[in-house]
Amino acid sequence: MNAYILIIVTLLVALAITAGILIFVVVRIFMRREGENDAADVMLGRILDGFPVPIFEIDENHKVTQWNRALEVLSGIKKTDVMGTDGQWRAFYKEKREVLADFIADGASEEQIARQYGDKARKSSLIEGAYEAEDFFPSMGEKGKWYRFTASPIRSGDKITGAIELLEDVTERNIAEDNLRYYAVQITKVQEEERKYIARELHDTTVQTLVALIYNLDNFMRDDPALTEDNLRKLKAMQDNLKRAVEEVRHFSRQLRPPVLDDLGLIPVLEWLAGELKKTYDMDVQMEISGSQRRLPPDMELALFRIIQEALINAAKHASVKSVDLKLGYMDESVKATIIDRGEGFELPDKIGSLPRSGKLGLAGIEERVQMLGGRLEIESGKGKGTKVYVDLPVVNTPVGFTR
Ligand SMILES: Nc1ncnc2c1ncn2[C@@H]1O[C@H](COP(=O)(O)OP(=O)(O)OP(=O)(O)O)[C@@H](O)[C@H]1O
Ligand SMILES: [Mg+2]
Questions:
Q1: Which of 19, 37, 50, 144 could lock onto 138 through a cystine, CB 3.0 to 4.6 A?
Q2: How much is the pTM?
Q3: Is 309 in the pocket of ligand 1 (CB under 6 A)?
Q4: For residue range 180-232, what is the model confidence (pLDDT) as tens digits?
Q5: Which ligand is in closest contact with the Cα of 361?
């Protein structure tokens, strides 16, 4: 539910920002054409003051020409204190430096913007020449703030005569996302604990009770001379059913949490899993191991096992293949696993995290576990092109929790 609200709010804000820029540009161009710049500035200022998104404008000399009411509230800086100055940086920083609008007003190239903002900024898909970015500003507010900001050039003919920038405070949203991620991590941990507990209980209690019953029946059949042949046969059939039940419970318990994993490690448990997949789906797993094979931290072995298990079961269930490649590379500081099938493939959704909404938990679970261990995940697929799942996990565990 929270995730839905988050997406809707994000979409609405993105729409408001785009609409804001478009309105701004149209009003600006229209008024420039009228040749009434001073009057236009005043009029535009009034319009912007009624606009709920924080917004400012600079001219080609980097002087502030607009600073709306919403930005006054967000930054705590009065319009009258910045108008006509180059103090736009004060909305973001404690010390003077260039902001995105300054780069845009200078007509900066894509490379220059990339140099300054790295992969935090990207070209706007909606507005020509505009860039949008998201970043953390530690000196803003009490504990720092996350802003999403979009800067767009103002043009007069071919010439850039300034830039406008719209800001959105996404601190709350990011904290909410972090919390969601944190809960997902906790749920995954609790789920593992529960599986382990149920597997152990089934093994130690249920299986032992059933085994005792089988022995009791053995003794009963042996010690009672009055039993007829017919009754003996019936008791033997009961005992066979009990033996089958023991095997089924043992199997179920191993599926929940293979004890081999804790005792012998990843490779033996993967060999066991390959045997299970052959029995259940008639699918072969071609395993190739490279590097310095060794025991890994328990969290990591468990995560790798669950990731590989899910990817292999997906290949068995969805790819219609009889064979899958599993490559495991033990590097000095990381372990890489690649699962490749040459089957049906599928169209990847924009976000793996959106799959659980339609009841598909597997790939999202893989993503969760990779994030939990600070690793990297790549999934490549396409209709008719097969599927490749690649994970790279650092061997030293990174702490889990609030990262921002
Ligand atoms: N190897 C694959 N080949 C073809 N399609 C795949 C493969 N892996 C995943 N898919 C597609 O991606 C979807 C999402 O996979 P995911 O593992 O998240 O869910 P699921 O397998 O359907 O259900 P769950 O894993 O929760 O039991 C699948 O329903 C399937 O359509
Ligand atoms: Mg699945």
A1: 144
A2: 0.63
A3: no
A4: 878 888 888 898 889 989 998 998 899 999 999 999 999 999 988 888 999 99
A5: 1
Which atom from ligand 1 is nearest to the alpha carbon of 387?
Answer: 1
Tokens representing residue 31 in the block: 């008024």
* Burial zone of 355 (CB within 10 Å; 0-12 exposed, 13-18 middle, 19+ buried): middle
What is the tens place of the pLDDT at every residue in 322-361? 999 999 999 999 999 999 999 999 999 988 888 888 888 8
For ligand 1, say whether the CB of 361 is within 6 Å of any of its atoms.
yes
**Residues with CB in 5 Å of ion ligand 2:** 314, 362
CATH number listed for the domain at residues 261-404: 3.30.565.10
Residue 399 has pLDDT above 70, yes or no: no
Q: In CATH, what number does 2-169 get? A: 3.30.450.20
- Between the CA of 281 and the centroid of ligand 2 the distance, in Å, is 14
Taking 60 as the threshold, does the pLDDT of residue 36 lie above it? Answer: no
Domain segments of the chain as ranges: 2-169, 170-257, 261-404
